[in-house]
């Protein structure tokens, strides 16, 4: 397909829009899109199987702008190709996702064109990017989910899923550790449906990459098992197209296309880090427009014929593919009604009918079992009713108990792409990002590791919350309960950090009963991620005929056991393993005639959403003698115990010793908790008497 004048004009139109948007906002990165525009253009116009009229068509190719600071590139493409907006009920609307006016308000409050691409906010954005490396890592999860969907749903006569995933990345993405983790996994998985485009302009913010990044990236990716091809000049549209053909022809490896480009191409700051982070200035913009043959006095200029050109290219191809797919899906539904029903539910994040029947019951048991074990059992039951629930661990499945063990649950491997047990390797950060990618393709992913190492994955966990996608992050070994492994493995501040993330539901269930109820809530989530924080050590399974029902989990916190009078002198608040400690302390206090209420608080976020009335019922404002108990940083507990309360928590990083010694050493004993409670009750009585 020889390059035409319209190709060149379309590329330069994109460049003009990007320059103008940054100039108008007086903020942004103009140089990056100018350099790589020809590649993004070629991909969208000639290859991407994407219908702007239906940007959520399930079998569309995915495009991820991993160099999210070049967002104007995506905004321009969404505008010029006429991508339509979609509402939260998955209905495609009449209006455009990005209008010219949106581009003019780039980076302003409420604009559809924020500083970085934001999933859920602007239709056509497949994932939120900006933290470098996240986009490429997320794209691996998308490709894995694509593989799995194809394996499960395609039939000889029907290729329901065969989409490809493209990610455009810069030097920064290539430097980030998460990209290496993800590339290593993608190479092992032989994801030939995955194509990364490396925008190698050899410039980052501090200058030329000579000062810091001199490795042979191509050789690195060859070592990962990737197919690597190079384009010597980003402006050579034919060479760019050949590279994409090379990707399409590859059947066993992911492809990396290394594209040599020039940041700020055509502007006075070409090949300079000055093309970063600030507008070109009016003179700079004029110079560049002159270079590209665009009218210097026009802003946000779309020459006649350019929109039509996109319509004839990506528009016509996408519409043709999408309508053909819809037609054959009608026949598919006739031949395979159950599979078609699953596909439709997946698209709308709906669960199969009767899924709750699978949840097990755990009889009361003083010895009990670790919450990681009960969670593993619930997960195994649930997964049998929820075929698109899949996941794994960052190499710790035997410890996190996340392996699916029922008949037919295979490992996801190149030779068994319908497997649901993912082996993510010792790669926590990529594990979370890959899970995000899978959730964006709408299967239900979970991944697991030790709570202490959730820090390694934080940036991707944060993105799951920001994007409002239902990833389940499972963390076991949740406290100093890990014992002998010592301070390196004893989480302290991780719970507070996770709880500080807006939109992430953090659950720390106290027993098997609460684990069941946690999964009941989590399975039903459609737009929220959850973190499950589970114990390594056994915890008694509470006798729910003596204590309140575990269904209270759905409200975040509930009165598990009350003072005999119903009017407590003191409230003991706890999560997870410490709930049992609180129950013991309550008995001890009863001997002294002190009435203690125990409140189990498995999910602070859900409790905070309850009406004031319920919250006051659980934590009556008049009862200010309150003790919070948690084997973690005390950070945040003051919110529930108030200024008159106390918290028994961790103030150091723990120690290496058998669990019993640690509990004694750090004050997690019924005597210590009861003592704190007595002190508070005594103080309140003195105050009342004074
Ligand atoms: C994880 C992360 N660290 C730092 C930044 C800040 N940052 C934005 S752009 C950039 C330079 C990126 O260089 P490159 O990927 O080569 O893009 P180019 O300079 O070529 O546009 C940096 C460090 C970021 N967005 N994400
Ligand atoms: Mg660069």
UniProtKB/TrEMBL annotation:
Binding-site positions, Mg(2+): 171, 201, 203
Checking Gene3D superfamilies in the record gives: 3.40.50.920, 3.40.50.970
Q: Where is the active site?
A: 428 (proton donor)
What are the Transketolase-like pyrimidine-binding domain coordinates in residue numbering?
369-541
Q: What class of enzyme is it?
A: transferase
At the top level, the lineage of the source is: Bacteria
Question: How is the co-factor bound, per the entry?
Answer: Binds 1 thiamine pyrophosphate per subunit. During the reaction, the substrate forms a covalent intermediate with the cofactor.
Q: Where is this site: Important for catalytic activity?
A: 29, 276
The record, for PROSITE patterns, names: TRANSKETOLASE_1 (PS00801), TRANSKETOLASE_2 (PS00802)
Question: What Gene Ontology terms describe where this protein resides (cellular component)?
Answer: cytosol
Family designation: Belongs to the transketolase family.
- The name of this protein is Transketolase
Organism, per UniProt? Streptosporangium nondiastaticum
Q: Which gene encodes it?
A: tkt
């Amino acid at each position: 397909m020889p390059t035409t004048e319209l190709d060149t004009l379309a590329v330069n139109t994109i460049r003009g829009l990007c320059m103008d948007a940054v100039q108008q906002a007086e903020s942004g990165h103009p140089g990056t899109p100018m350099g790589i525009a020809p590649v993004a253009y070629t991909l969208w116009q000639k290859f991407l199987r994407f219908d702007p009229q239906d940007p959520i068509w399930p079998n569309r190719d995915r495009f991820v702008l991993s160099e999210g600071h070049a967002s104007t590139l995506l905004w321009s493409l969404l505008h010029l190709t006429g991508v339509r907006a979609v509402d939260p009920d998955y209905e495609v609307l009449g209006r455009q996702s990005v209008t010219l006016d949106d581009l003019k308000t780039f980076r302003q409050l409420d604009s559809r064109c924020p500083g970085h691409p934001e999933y859920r906010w602007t239709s056509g954005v497949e994932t939120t990017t900006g933290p470098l490396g996240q986009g490429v890592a997320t794209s691996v999860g998308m490709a894995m989910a694509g593989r799995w969907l194809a394996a499960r749903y395609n039939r000889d006569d029907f290729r329901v899923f065969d989409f490809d995933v493209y990610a455009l990345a810069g030097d920064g993405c290539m430097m980030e550790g998460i990209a290496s983790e993800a590339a290593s996994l993608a190479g092992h998985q032989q994801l030939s449906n995955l194509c990364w485009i490396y925008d190698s302009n050899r410039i980052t913010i501090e200058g030329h990459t000579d000062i810091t990044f001199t490795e042979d990236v191509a050789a690195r990716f060859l070592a990962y098992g990737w197919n690597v091809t190079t384009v010597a000049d980003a402006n050579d549209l034919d060479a760019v197209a050949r590279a994409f053909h090379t990707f399409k022809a590859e059947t066993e490896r992911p492809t990396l296309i290394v594209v040599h480009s020039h940041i700020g191409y055509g502007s006075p700051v070409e090949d300079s880090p000055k093309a970063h982070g600030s507008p070109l200035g009016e003179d700079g913009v004029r110079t560049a427009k002159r270079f590209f043959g665009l009218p210097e006095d026009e802003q946000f200029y779309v020459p006649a014929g350019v929109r039509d050109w996109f319509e004839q290219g990506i528009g016509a191809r996408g519409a043709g593919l999408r309508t053909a797919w819809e037609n054959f899906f009608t026949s598919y539904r006739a031949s395979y009604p159950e599979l078609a029903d699953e596909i439709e539910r997946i698209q709308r994040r709906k669960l199969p009918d009767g899924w709750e029947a699978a949840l097990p019951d755990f009889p009361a048991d003083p010895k009990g079992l670790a919450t990681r074990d009960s969670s593993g059992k619930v997960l195994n039951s649930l997964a049998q009713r929820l075929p698109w629930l899949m996941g794994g661990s960052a190499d710790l499945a035997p410890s996190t108990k996340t392996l699916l063990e029922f008949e037919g649950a295979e490992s996801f491997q190149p030779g068994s792409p319908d497997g649901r047990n993912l082996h993510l390797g010792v790669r926590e950060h990529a594990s979370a990002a890959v899970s995000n990618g899978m959730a964006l393709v709408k299967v239900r992913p979970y991944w697991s590791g030790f709570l202490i190492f959730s820090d390694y994955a934080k940036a991707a966990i944060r993105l799951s919350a920001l994007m409002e996608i239902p990833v389940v992050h499972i963390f076991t070994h949740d406290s100093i309960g890990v014992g002998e492994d010592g301070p390196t493995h004893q989480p302290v501040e991780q719970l507070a950090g996770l709880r500080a993330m807006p939109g992430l539901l953090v659950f720390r269930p106290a027993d098997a009963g609460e684990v069941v109820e946690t999964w009941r809530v989590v399975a039903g989530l459609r737009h929220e991620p959850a973190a499950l924080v589970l114990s390594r050590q056994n915890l008694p399974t509470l006798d729910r005929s003596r204590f309140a029902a575990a269904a209270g989990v759905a409200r975040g916190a509930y009165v598990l056991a009350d003072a005999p009078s119903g009017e407590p002198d003191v409230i003991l608040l706890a999560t997870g393993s410490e709930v049992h400690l609180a129950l013991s302390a309550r008995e001890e206090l009863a001997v002294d005639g002190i009435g203690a209420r125990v409140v189990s608080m498995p999910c602070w976020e859900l409790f905070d959403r309850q009406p004031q009335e319920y919250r006051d019922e659980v934590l009556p404002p008049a009862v200010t003698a309150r003790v919070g108990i948690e084997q973690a940083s005390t950070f945040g507990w003051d919110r529930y115990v108030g200024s008159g309360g106390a918290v028994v928590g961790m103030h150091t990083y723990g120690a290496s010793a058998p669990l019993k010694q640690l509990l004694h050493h750090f004050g997690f004993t019924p005597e210590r908790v009861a003592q704190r409670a007595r002190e508070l009750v005594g103080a309140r009585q003195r105050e009342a008497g004074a």
